[in-house]
Amino acid sequence: MNRKKILEALNNALASEHACFIRYLTHAAVLTGPYAEPVASRLREIAEDEEKHAQALRDRISGMGGTPTMRVEDKDLIMASSLKQIIEVNLKEEEKAIALYTSLLKESGHEGVLLFETIEHILKDEQEHREELERLKE
């Protein structure tokens, strides 16, 4: 993948991270029920992780000579209100993120260690989020 295509892919990932941040915070705000507070607290923590991912992507995009997007990926803004819906939505979205970052990891190896390690770190976080959500599902 050439640099222009990698920058485009990174900006698409950044737009998704913007949406994930909003989605997790919104889900935390609307959650009700007996387990709402501890789950909402964890959702807010995951939102903070997504915000850190966005910043890391901005830094890499800028470092590679690109311009970070301010776009929000609308298709990733999926409303849910019950605990079951919230878990299902976010599990599906984490799976998409894992697939995206796995692909980026494979495609970006020749662009340098900084980019590779940034993507690798984000991928690790997304896999941890998926595992946590899986445990909540049971």
The tally of beta strands, per DSSP, is 0
Q: What is the CATH homology-level superfamily?
A: Ferritin, core subunit, four-helix bundle
Overall average pLDDT: 94
> How does the major sheet shape up?
none
Written account of the structure:
The protein is an all-alpha fold and 138 residues long. It has one domain (3-137): Ferritin, core subunit, four-helix bundle (Ferritin, Up-down Bundle). Helix content is 78%, strand content 0%. The chain has 4 helices and no strands. It has helices spanning 3-30, 36-63, 83-108, 113-137. Helix 1 runs antiparallel to helix 2 (36-63), helix 1 runs antiparallel to helix 3 (83-108) and helix 3 (83-108) runs antiparallel to helix 4. The longest helix is centred in the N-terminal third of the chain and has 28 residues, at 3-30. The mean pLDDT is 94.
Helix and strand topology:
Blueprint: H1 3-30, H2 36-63, H3 83-108, H4 113-137
Which labels suit this protein?
78% helix; Ferritin; 138 residues; 4 helices
In short:
78% of the residues lie in helices and 0% in strands. The chain has helices at residues 3-30, 36-63, 83-108, 113-137.
